[in-house]
Specification:
about 325 residues; 9-stranded antiparallel β-sheet; 5-stranded antiparallel β-sheet; about 40% strand
Length: about 325
């Protein structure tokens, strides 16, 4: 809990954010993430609620990649493809340590874990960096070359209904990745100009569903403008006037509006149906090891993988 009364809860099962409580414009504090009341549903969860994702977030085409002349076959868990690392970090038990107001989570991913080469040691530091900023610092080292792409999969709902269609989105991206019918990048990066994915100006999410032929909502990879730690996206809920902004050091962000939520019973009986929450996933591009012109995602011995993701909570 920070000085302003904002609070976050994290479990070492899957490195999952299980709760974030923030105020509305009238300083009424309430839950803004999707989750469950007990551990048991998380053990069966297939929607990655609040989870740390790894070794490789998003999708890997054909559940394989080739590195230095060797092809590695991965765990396929979405048809013939891999999604979010297969068995993944979201289902692992992490070591947890508290140092004053900072939580540290550690996990050793052994060689051949879900098919990936090398032993990989991953560390997360999660803490309130200010009265508004929940910060996640990611670090990893390996003893063999291996792709890596870590993110968090929290679902946000800033309002008081079970539908985020009335939320307003702005994404700082002039480009996005073209995908095929299996949500795998084709390799083409194109402009958002004159497309339904152009969210450079505030847009009501549900209006885009209805007016722009997006019946399944958003599940798209954006190329975030700029470099370093910068704003990737802002979501605003006009009734309660809550706002969440994602800042990331990663080149891309997956914007997902929860179409595949299956209607399970969530916290306090909330029905986790399609569009009950949305995700802002700062990450490298999907399937990058199979697209040499995408930013490099290979971590090598002697190097340290590190990136930062901040969720900033404000009212206006």
């Amino acid at each position: 809990t920070n000085r302003g009364g904002l609070s976050a809860k994290i479990t070492n099962y899957g490195g999952r954010i299980t709760s974030i409580i923030t105020p509305d414009y009238a300083q009424n504090f309430d839950e803004i993430t999707l989750g469950y009341d007990t551990l048991a549903p998380y053990l069966e969860d297939e929607s990655y609620l609040g989870a740390t994702i790894g070794r490789y977030a998003n999708r890997m085409c054909g559940a394989q990649f080739t590195l230095e002349g060797q092809t590695f076959d991965l765990t396929a868990n979405e048809g013939k493809n891999q999604l979010h690392g297969g068995g993944g970090f979201h289902s692992r038990l992490w070591e947890a340590y508290c140092d004053q107001n900072r939580l540290t989570l550690e996990y050793r991913s052994p060689a051949k874990d879900d098919g990936y080469p090398g032993n990989m040691d991953v560390t997360l530091h999660i803490y309130w960096d200010s009265d508004t900023d929940l910060r996640i610092d990611y670090h990893a080292v390996t003893d063999a070359p291996c792709p890596i792409n870590l993110t968090n999969h929290a679902y946000f709902n800033l309002g008081d209904t079970d539908d985020i269609s009335g939320h307003i989105a702005a994404i700082h991206a002039q480009q996005y990745l073209i995908r095929d019918d299996n949500n795998i990048p084709t390799g083409e990066i194109t402009t958002v100009q004159n497309s339904s994915l152009d969210l450079r100006q505030d847009a009501t999410i549900g209006h885009r569903f209805n007016a722009c032929a997006l019946p399944q909502g958003f599940d798209h990879s954006y190329v975030i403008d700029g470099q370093g730690l910068r704003r990737a996206a802002t979501i605003y809920e006009p009734k309660n006037q809550r706002r969440v902004t994602l800042l990331t050091t990663q080149p891309g962000m997956q914007f997902y509006t929860g179409y595949h939520l299956d209607g399970a019973a969530g916290r306090d009986g909330q029905r986790l149906a399609p569009f009950a929450g949305l995700c802002l996933e700062g990450q490298h591009h999907p399937d990058s090891p199979n697209h040499p012109h995408f930013p490099d995602t290979i971590l090598r011995p002697g190097e340290t993988y590190q990136h930062t993701q901040i969720y900033r909570f404000e009212t206006s």
